[in-house]
Amino acid sequence: MTNIRKRRLSVSEYVQGILEGNRMILSRAITLVESSRPQDRRLAEQVLEEIMPHTGGSLRIGITGVPGVGKSTFLESFGLYLTGLDKSIAVLTIDPTSQKTRGSILGDKTRMEELSNDPRAYIRPSPSGKSLGGVHEKTRESMLLCEAAGFDIILIETVGVGQSEVAVEGMVDFFLLLMLAGAGDELQGIKRGIMEIADALVITKSDGDNVARSKIARRQYQNALHLFPPNKTEWYPKVLTCSSVESRGMKEIWTLIKRFEEHMKERDFFHQRRAEQNLRWLEESINCYLLEQFYQDPNIQYLYGDLKKSVSKGKLPVSAAVRKLSEAFLNR
Amino acid sequence: MTNIRKRRLSVSEYVQGILEGNRMILSRAITLVESSRPQDRRLAEQVLEEIMPHTGGSLRIGITGVPGVGKSTFLESFGLYLTGLDKSIAVLTIDPTSQKTRGSILGDKTRMEELSNDPRAYIRPSPSGKSLGGVHEKTRESMLLCEAAGFDIILIETVGVGQSEVAVEGMVDFFLLLMLAGAGDELQGIKRGIMEIADALVITKSDGDNVARSKIARRQYQNALHLFPPNKTEWYPKVLTCSSVESRGMKEIWTLIKRFEEHMKERDFFHQRRAEQNLRWLEESINCYLLEQFYQDPNIQYLYGDLKKSVSKGKLPVSAAVRKLSEAFLNR
């Protein structure tokens, strides 16, 4: 194990290290699953296959909100509350400013300074990525690695804009939406679909002269949520307030999450939701992979470029172009 | 041509018949493109390829609205207004009650009795269909056949719920959303995304004691539309009112559509929008076709069913299942 920092690890070294909770090896394993190099992919797959029996034991919590809502300070405050209860936590964050892993680690350690020095907490920032099937696929697999490493709770942060919320909602047990008590503009660009998939809303920055405003916002959001039809789990999303800088509201949030977990487990929805998430993930992944194979094929790219010209001008019917493309791809 | 009603037509018979505006042959050609039989598909493709140079000359108008908004009476009233201007029109409707073509024709002829007896109008109902890539693909190709047959205007109706609007918006020049002046409930379950893609809104049933209400609704919708950011075409959606039973408002709607056409042509957006629609259509079609080939492969179905069990239980990582499935499919 002397030279372990430099040399390539074997499957069993990865697996053993992860199961022992060795964070250096865990971090390297996450880097491995995030890699797109073919040799890394194969190794990552073997590691994942080995650790699968040891996954599923953590409570998975997704946290989102628009930029400026205070996700980092919330994660720090809520994370410290949880480690204070002697829970071990892994925090998977997405760094929107970086497209590369290495550059973002320091940034995130600074964002959550106290939490990153807490031995019960493990913080792992990942680049926000661009590609379809990129960031979520990796986040899911990173989550599984953290579970195998034995963390009680996994917190997954998303950047709060666009599609990533839906992806994260598809991998967590509980999905928390952070909101600001805005000055009049109560919807702040949050997509309506996001409110509908949240299991709870938390109004952040409920401190100082913002307390009254956040209470009003809480009532408004609670009323707005009543307009959505209940889903089959019969859980009605709740709205809470908190102050990350004053560390207030964290206990209530945790109590709510525990209550949700109980609610879901009593009705057998907890494991059902996970099973459904896995199947959706499989379908999205295979669809994405097949289309990737198609669009990355150099012959297809050439042919597609050619056919596009005739199709966009309305000279060639789409059905003919589809036949030519599919023949070229499937009869390779 | 004696036995033409029964026997299989050749490509050139189809093409010649369509270009001559022979409605019996046009109807058969639409049935042909709607067919999923492989031998029909090939023939349909050849027919489409031949008629492509003769397409693109019609103004394409999409019309949608929730059930009960009065789409049929609007189509009848607006259609008669247009034929009164000596325009020839093709009306492609979707019959939500039928999954088969044959059963629905009588139903729709009854729905638009006066218009269906008008020699300048051609009404073609199609079953609403179920499959992805089903109804829209066929509607688009039916539209092209009608264009080759020389109609000035094509009206395309959609059922007004769910995904079909987005598909239709992707094939028309002008997209009209019909709305009711509701009793308090101004949004009536119309998805917000639909309002955002409409080029105009028309409040229907503005007659009798409903006139005042529809004027209020018109103002409310016009205000609501101002909240959406303008798109690159710089066209601001307008709101009008109409009464189909009293045939009022049709002239204003037609004037608006003509104004829109002029606006788009002056800025070169008219043909640009069509070119973009064609490319989007190509991409959706090829994606859909490739995934169909995958999911309909019997070996894949067997393997997928097997892998699903392990994946849903969290025993097999998705990446491993994806590799197995893609190897089985691409290395056939």
General description of the model:
2 copies of one chain form a homodimer. Chain A is α/β, with parallel strands linked by helices. The first copy, chain A, has 3 domains: 1-54, Single alpha-helices involved in coiled-coils or other helix-helix interfaces (Up-down Bundle); 55-267, Rossmann fold; 282-330, no CATH class. The first copy, chain A, is 54% helix and 12% strand. Chain A has 14 helices and 7 strands. Chain A has helices at residues 11-19, 23-34, 38-51, 71-84, 101-111, 113-116, 135-148, 164-169, 192-197, 211-226, 250-266, 269-296, 298-312, 318-330, and strands at 59-64, 89-95, 121-127, 153-157, 174-180, 200-204, 238-241. In chain A, strands 3-2-4-1-5-6-7 form a 7-stranded parallel β-sheet, sandwiched between helices. In chain A, strand 6, helix 10 (211-226) and strand 7 (238-241) form a beta-alpha-beta unit. In chain A, helix 1 (11-19) packs across helix 3 (38-51), helix 2 packs antiparallel against helix 7 (135-148) and helix 13 runs antiparallel to helix 14 (318-330). The radius of gyration of chain A is 22 Å and the shape is globular. Chain A starts with 10 loop residues before the first helix and ends with a helix. The interface between A and B is large, with 48 and 48 residues.
